[in-house]
């Protein structure tokens, strides 16, 4: 699909056929995770979406990856058909706990965990706490959201939370999708690419989004990356035109933790939609490099 101009109608047809939604129970309480899978063999790549998105949004990138890998993309707790977390103001560690339970339910050990935007916080929290047997061979942070929970950021944290919730209260999910979808993509994105982001945003759940806003406002990716095992390598990449998590901030995060950093050309915040082939290539290179070093 990535070799032709992107069309939402084509994406929805492929979504139902090759990347269909599934659900699995993850504990005795009946909590469930909704997810999508593509590919049956090869390294296992786990994809974690951001605050305004869903598992389905990964479709163009997942299709490329599925040629050589088994791709698993979840709907985070409170998104899609995934059971929300109990806490109204959860932290990334709470999402990471569900992530570990989901992978255990599927009897899967990930070769790579790719976290986009807010998903990068969840992915970082996962590697900070997961047992050795459940650690990925590599952690890949794409356009990472760093959170506003650092000491001294209290005013910014309150401002971000208030602004996002005010937008939701004023516009609702549909209105927010209409007004915000274009900001996630490069300036010259096609109408069809914008429509794809809008379609995914319109599937957000009010309660799940509010919990994610609380996590973004109150957590700190650095607190988790500082606990990353030395045996779990990590990399960071960012779209060169990202106006939401700008490249300068992503590169500074990489320098703080001495991690490789790459720019995704001609891509905004939703870089895996703007440039699915480039992002898939970055993921494949990281996974194959770790396999060769093993």
Automatic annotation (TrEMBL):
Query: What GO annotations for molecular function exist for this entry?
Result: 2-succinyl-6-hydroxy-2,4-cyclohexadiene-1-carboxylate synthase activity
| Gene3D superfamilies recorded | alpha/beta hydrolase
Domain AB hydrolase-1: start-end pairs: 45-280
Report any Pfam family annotated for this entry: Abhydrolase_6
Q: Which InterPro entries match?
A: AB_hydrolase_1, AB_hydrolase_fold, AB_hydrolase_sf
What's its top-level EC category? lyase
Tell me which domain of life the UniProt entry assigns to the organism this sequence originates from.
Bacteria
UniProt KW keywords: Lyase
For this protein, the Enzyme Commission number is: 4.2.99.20
**Name of the protein:** 2-succinyl-6-hydroxy-2, 4-cyclohexadiene-1-carboxylate synthase
Which species is this UniProt entry from?
Answer: Ralstonia edaphi
Upper lineage: Bacteria, Pseudomonadati, Pseudomonadota, Betaproteobacteria, Burkholderiales
Q: Which gene produces this protein?
A: menH_4
């Amino acid at each position: 699909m990535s070799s032709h101009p992107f069309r939402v109608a084509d994406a929805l047809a492929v979504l139902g056929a090759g990347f269909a939604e599934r659900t699995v129970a993850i504990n005795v309480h009946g909590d469930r995770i909704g997810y999508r899978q593509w590919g049956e063999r090869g390294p296992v790549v786990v994809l974690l979406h951001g605050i305004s998105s869903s598992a389905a949004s990964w479709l163009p990138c997942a299709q490329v990856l599925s040629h050589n890998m088994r791709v698993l993309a979840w709907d985070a707790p409170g998104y899609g058909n995934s059971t929300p977390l109990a806490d109204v103001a959860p932290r990334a560690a709470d999402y990471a706990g569900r992530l570990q339970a989901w992978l255990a339910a599927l009897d899967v050990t990930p070769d790579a965990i790719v976290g986009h935007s807010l998903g990068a916080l969840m992915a970082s929290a996962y590697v900070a706490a997961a047992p050795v047997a459940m650690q990925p061979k590599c952690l890949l942070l794409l356009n990472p959201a760093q959170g506003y929970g650092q000491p001294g950021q209290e005013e910014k944290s309150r401002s971000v939370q208030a602004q996002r919730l005010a937008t939701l209260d004023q516009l609702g999910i549909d209105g927010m999708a209409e007004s915000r979808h274009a900001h996630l993509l490069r300036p010259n994105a096609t109408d069809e690419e914008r429509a794809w982001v809008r379609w995914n945003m319109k599937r957000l759940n009010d309660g799940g989004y509010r919990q994610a806003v609380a996590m973004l406002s109150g957590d700190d990716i650095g607190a988790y990356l500082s606990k990353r095992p030395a045996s779990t390598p990590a990399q960071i990449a960012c779209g060169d035109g990202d106006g939401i998590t700008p490249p300068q901030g992503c590169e500074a995060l990489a320098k703080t933790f001495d991690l490789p950093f790459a720019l995704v050309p001609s891509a905004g915040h939703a870089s895996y939609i703007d440039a699915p082939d480039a992002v898939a290539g970055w993921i494949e290179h990281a996974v194959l490099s770790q396999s060769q070093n093993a």
